[in-house]
């Protein structure tokens, strides 16, 4: 396989095991670099295994049905892989204060569903960074944290 195909395989595993329906936090130790950067507009940037695992644990405690999946073929060039996705979940769990725009009390019952595009840098079989551009306005509006006119 080519480097690009190898990198796509790493990203497919990450999308499935970290962002998919059934999280496997062990995947962070297995395929993320020790100082991996995870950055999306809805949250503060996260760095390193412990910080990234804590982020996902808290996110899933608040949104137990959280699930994201790819919506197009992955594109790879050199160390970079780009993916399009959609997903979300229902806030039926713990209070959540990780959104930059505000907090949710426990079990608000609000549902978010939104889309985005993510660029991942993969070096030597490990994800070094994941930087995404998401439709955070849609998610925050659905959660009642942003009001529309």
Write structural notes for this entry.
With 149 residues, this protein is an alpha+beta fold. The chain has a single domain (3-142), classed as Nuclear Transport Factor 2, Chain: A (Roll). The chain is built from 4 helices and 7 strands, in the order ααββαβββββα. Strands 1, 2, 3, 4, 5, 6 and 7 form a 7-stranded mixed β-sheet that branches. A hairpin with a 6-residue loop joins strand 1 and strand 2 (46-47).
Low-confidence stretches: none
- CATH class, named Alpha Beta
- Overall geometry comes to globular
Number of domains: 1
Instruction: Kindly state the number of beta strands.
Output: 7
The name CATH uses for the topology is: Nuclear Transport Factor 2, Chain: A
Number of helices: 4
User: How would you spell out the order of helices and strands?
Assistant: HHEEHEEEEEH
Radius of gyration equals 15 Å
- Which structural class fits the helix and strand makeup? alpha+beta
Looking at the overall shape, the CATH architecture is: Roll
Helix content: 25-40%
Major pleated sheet: 7 strands, mixed
What would the average pLDDT be, to the nearest integer? Answer: 97
- What is the terminal-to-terminal distance? 51 Å
